[in-house]
Amino acid sequence: MKKRLFLAILVLTAILGCTAHAYMDVSSDKWYYKNIQTMSDSGLLKGYDDNTFRPDNPITYAEFVSVLKRCVSPGSESSLSGHWAKGAMEYAYSNGWYDYDEINESLYDTAIPRYMAVKLTVLSMNLPKTENDDGVYWRYMNEIKDFNSIDGRYGYLVIRAYNNGVLTGDENGNFNPRNSLTRAEACAIISRAAGMADIKPSASAEPDVPIAPQISVRGGVSENGKLQVIGTQLSNERGEPVVLRGMSSHGLQWFSNFTDRASIAKTAQAGANVFRLAMYTGENGYLSQPDNIKNKLYSSVDGAIAEDMYVIIDWHILSDGNPMTNVAAAESFFNEVSAKYSNYDNVIYEICNEPNGNISWSGDVKPYAERIIPVIRANDPESVILVGSPTWSQDINAAADDPLNFDNVMYTCHFYAGTHTQWLRDWITYAIGKGAPIFISEWGTSAADGNGGVFLEESQRWLEFLNANNISWVNWSLCDKNEASAAIAPNTGVNWSTDTLSQSGKFVFDNFR
Ligand code: IDC
Hints:
By secondary structure, the chain is an alpha/beta fold.
């Protein structure tokens, strides 16, 4: 059998050398220690750059298929452009490990369900049929208690995997076909299927791509799914920390020509994974021309969705100071928009850009949030909601002292490098220390009036601080206005490119990745 031949080669090359892998989070007393070590030392697996393996994280389609492909056919990987696992996926498909209707590219970075992992393992490893295969369901009677919940297309493959000793059920005897499996479990299943439990370390077949790219700002919605807030950390659907970085539009009433799908796509291609749509309420914005502005907003949200971007719908109060001034309009707006986009993981709601004037957190902004958040939650129970604070969203300490009682809420902090310096970073540190999740939904390299500077040294200090704290950020603003904070050189027009960025834009775009 081809598989055995390859394994024999691995055993032989084992003599040549040994690169023992020691992962910080895989200790030798763990049940999966041996499987992970063996496969890593054989070059079939690689952990993350920070020397972790993250054994309890769910494994994705892309990761699972890549490891299988390395087992049966080591060597060239990912010469194709596009997704890093595309080569392995196409190899798997062309070898009949899965059918065209079972996996498409939008699934690559999602958790693979157990029934699919079993099918891929059985077919790639050519696990032999057993007498109880194909319809003789004794395992169903005796061992797989939830056999009825396995799609008929996969039942015999699950039985074959059980009969080959590749996996067993959970403590209740269930297979749980639709559950994910952890990276450690996947490793155990594949190494058992490959019959390699006793293979000694080998230096062969050093993989040239990691088992998975680290969670990073590159991940868009297809990679990270529905966001959630865990503690103070924005996290993806799998509970892993995630950082969003991107651009804010300028006011939709003035610069919506830079919020079409093409501009969003160019921003995404530069490495951003979030786009903010600043829908001014005042200054001839939404309150003066609601239908016109809403149409611009919706077409931009749809553009962002098409580009796999997270998108922030920003109720951009500014001249209206107290968010309570237009609370009724805000309620009906957020009711409509959250109903419209409740099925999309892309959308993040920012309910008040920058409260300002003679107001307080506890007396004005918090009560406003307590009216708007339930309106959104009624349509969209789990989306991330961003909340500003008085003094143009700098009073995060007041919010941290008297927090909102809702899940998946973050407090925005806005800074302009020419105006806000170490003291505001200290306030963020204070707020995080009190358990308040912070999101920078707007910052500029200029002074607070949007002009002056640019202040790149202070901006650099800010970005280092945000990186060190895993804080997401959105820069003001993607337009070609003649002001220092604008990311595109003055009067460039919509055919902008990364070659026509302003000084600010160059600095910011260089920092997306
Ligand atoms: C500024 C724009 C500027 C515009 C002004 C008033 O850059 O062209 O004339 O608004 O509409 C904020 C606000 C944001 C400001 C920005 C810079 O959220 O609307 O944009 N800023 O002043 N908070 C702090 C700074």
